[in-house]
Every structure is written in C-alpha cells, then in structure tokens.
Amino acid sequence: MLDIVIESRSAILSPAVKVKRILPFRLKRMIGPFIFMDHAGPISAIPQQPSTLDVLPHPHIGLSTVSYLFGGQVTHRDSLGVEQIIRPGEVNWMTAGSGISHSERFEDPSSLAGGLEMIQTWVALPERDEEAAPSFNNYTPQELPVYTDKGIWMRLIAGNAYGLKNDVKTHSPLFYLHVVLQKGAAFGLPLEHAERGFYIVKGSIEISGVTYTSGKMLVFSKGVDPLILAKEDTTLMLLGGEPLGERFIWWNFVSSRKERIEQAKEDWKQGRIILPPNDDKEFIPLPDDRFKPSGSAPRPEPLS
Asked: Mean pLDDT over all residues of the chain?
C-alpha cells in the first residue's frame, strides 16, 4: 500500500536559490538511509551576477551528500582540497564522516545559459562509518549503467536495482535512480529493498486511478508492487534501501548521537573544521551564532 505522500516545501539556500525540500518530513524522517532531499530549480532567469546563487562554505558530519544535475554547472570545493566542476548526469558523492566543509559556486555564466536544475540528497552513514575519514568521488555518466525499454529510460545513480549495479561507493544497501517515462509508459518499483519511494521531478503519474503531480514524493510499504502509469512525459527520482535506525539532524549535521551534534556545533564555531583551501574568505556561521561572515574571516585550524 501507499504509506504516505510527501508534499515538497519551499526553503532558501542562498539569496537567489529557492528549493523544494522533500526530506526530512515530520511524518517520515528517512527513506532507507536517505535523510535529506532538495530539488533546486529549474531556474531559467539566471541573475546578472551568478555569484548570488553561490552557497558559501559550510560543514557536514555523519553523512554523504549526493549532487545530481539536470542542467547547468556547479563548482564544488571542499576542505580536502578537491575542486570539481559538476555537470549534468554525473554523480558527485562526498562523504563527510568525521567532518568536512564545502562550497558550491556558479562561476561560469555561459554554463547556465540553459538554466539550472539539480537534486541534492544526503545519505546517513551506518554507526560504524559515522567517524570515517572524509572523501569525495566524481563519477561520469559513462560509469553509470542505463536501461531502456518501451517508453522507459533510467540511469542507476547508486546501489542496485532492476539487475543494475555500478561502482559508486556506498556504505549501506540502497538504490537511487533517475527515470524518464514517456506518456503512457507503465513502470514498477524494485521489490528487493525494505523502504522505497519516488519523487516526481516533473510531469504526472497515476496509481490506482489517482493522479499525482510534480513536487510530490510517494513512499510505499515493503513488497507492494504499484503500477505507475505516466500521464505525460515524466521524470522521477527513485530511492530507498535498508533503514539504519534513528538519526538526529540539526542544520548540516547528522548523527546517531545527540552529543556528537553538539560537538560538531562547537567544532565549527571554534574553527576546528577547516575551510576549502581555495575558498576560505567567507563561510556560513551556525544558524544561532551572532557572528556574520566577512571578507577577512580567519582560517580555522584542522581538527585534532
């Protein structure tokens, strides 16, 4: 049966970037290990100064961020010294573990000529990996298997589903796919995972005579095999996997322990999570901190 329908809510990432926030939701905090999901765009009216789209350096612990673009281009910089241009169809998987900071910059106006649209998810880490060393991996579209059938196109972003697998490094059993359906196509969810859901990026689908439109996430019980009928050309993001247990989330921090989040707050406030070496002039302060970023912010010291 259909467990819940989650309506996306509006949230603001930067002065020029408003997003649809899907997870976490008060009645459904996680789907498998997925604890956060934002849909940015489509933004077709790009500001004259693309830098107003920028997300300044900010910290994470206890999770992996997954950035996936439909259009546009983003420059990722992190405290490991990684600088990566993120393009449509790639998977950019950053594991925060014990602590990392990163920024997202829009530095090439020409790359935004066709607009900007992206999905960002957070994947909570198993307790054994919550304090793992941070890492970043970029996977090109050529590394991601694609399956096609009549009216169906799908790319496996991570995990395993429908017999597809790839080499994207994950820490727990999960699946994550980009699916495009032509009008009239029929589709079903993978059955092998405990928790499953899909987000309607654009278009609309019908299940058991009920129509669901873009901006909604549908979550299903284990073993249920819904028939998903595309009412028009439709794009979906499918995700889920095995549950990890309770997780606490505050701002950009995720942990199985409340006290670890309190430590992360203090680490960021005291500068013990370093900034990206090529992007260390400004940063986002704690939401409840009176300090405001300035053009001469001190470089935080590394974690001991």
From this structure: 91
CA distances from 96 to 114, 128, 197, 271 (A): 31, 14, 25, 16
Residues 136-145 have a mean pLDDT of 97
**Cβ proximity of 176 and 164 under 8 Å:** no
Q: Please name the amino acid found at residue 155.
A: R
Q: What is the mean pLDDT of residues 29-57?
A: 87
- How far, in Å, CA of 53 to CA of 46, rounded? 9
Whole-angstrom Cα Rg for the chain: 19
Which residues, 6 or more positions from 59, have their beta carbon under 8 angstroms from its beta carbon?
A: 96, 99, 100, 101, 252, 253, 264, 267, 268, 273
Q: Which residues of 36-67 are buried (b: 16+ CB within 10 A; e: fewer)?
A: bbbbbbebeebeeebeebbbbbbbbbbbbbbb
